[in-house]
Design a protein that fits this description.
- The chain is built from eight helices and five strands, in the order E-H-E-H-H-H-E-H-E-H-H-E-H.
- It has helices spanning 13-24, 31-41, 46-55, 58-73, 84-87, 100-111, 115-137, 159-173, and strands at 2-6, 27-30, 77-80, 92-97, 150-153.
- Helix 2 (31-41) packs antiparallel against helix 4 and helix 3 (46-55) runs parallel beside helix 7.
- It is globular and about 40 Å long.
Length: 174
């Protein structure tokens, strides 16, 4: 089985992916980790790199081709990526959503910033992401729930509970 987990920053993609992978004994790949690594190589923050990539789409293409190729050649993995559903179309596609205030608090914890900085950075980042995906792949709205098999609101759920919900849904679909 191939599982893709998508959503915007702070919804719990990374944590959920890691816990689910451990339960299933699957490999987990993270588009966000790949992106952060490329940003570090350029000595940029993720937010700076988002802006840089707008003018240098070869970075998106490199990351995206890596995800697509892995999905074509492998099974029994979890891909945590905003466009995982697009690059691995034969996956079980999960979208995580969350109340904005809670989501931004999670971003603050992850990035070590205040709520105003998190909101500003995330808004700028989302705008850049939407623009890039439209330009590169003609995707108007990567967040559209129609792209997914299952949507989970993580606002009031612990990561282990999200994993249990996903596992139950997978069992129903098999």
């Amino acid at each position: 089985m191939k599982i893709t987990i998508s959503g915007i920053g702070g919804v719990g993609k990374g944590t959920t992916s890691k816990l689910l992978a451990k339960k299933l004994n699957y490999k987990v790949l993270s588009g966000g980790d790949f992106f952060r690594e490329m940003a570090e190589e350029k000595d940029m923050s993720v937010y700076e790199f988002d802006q840089y990539v707008k003018e240098n789409p070869e970075y998106d293409k490199k990351l995206d081709n890596k995800q697509k190729k892995y999905g074509q050649e492998n099974n029994n993995f979890i891909l945590e990526s905003r466009l995982g559903w697009y690059f691995v179309p034969d996956s079980f596609k999960v979208k995580l959503v969350c109340d904005e205030e809670i989501r931004l608090k999670r971003v603050c914890q992850r990035d070590g910033c205040d709520i105003f900085e998190a909101k500003n950075n995330e808004n700028i980042r989302l705008e850049a992401i939407h623009e890039r995906y439209k330009n590169l792949y003609n995707i108007d709205n990567f967040e559209d729930s129609k792209n997914y098999d299952f949507v989970i609101d993580t606002t009031n759920l612990a990561a282990k509970d999200i994993v249990d919900i996903i596992l139950k849904r997978i069992e129903k679909n098999i």
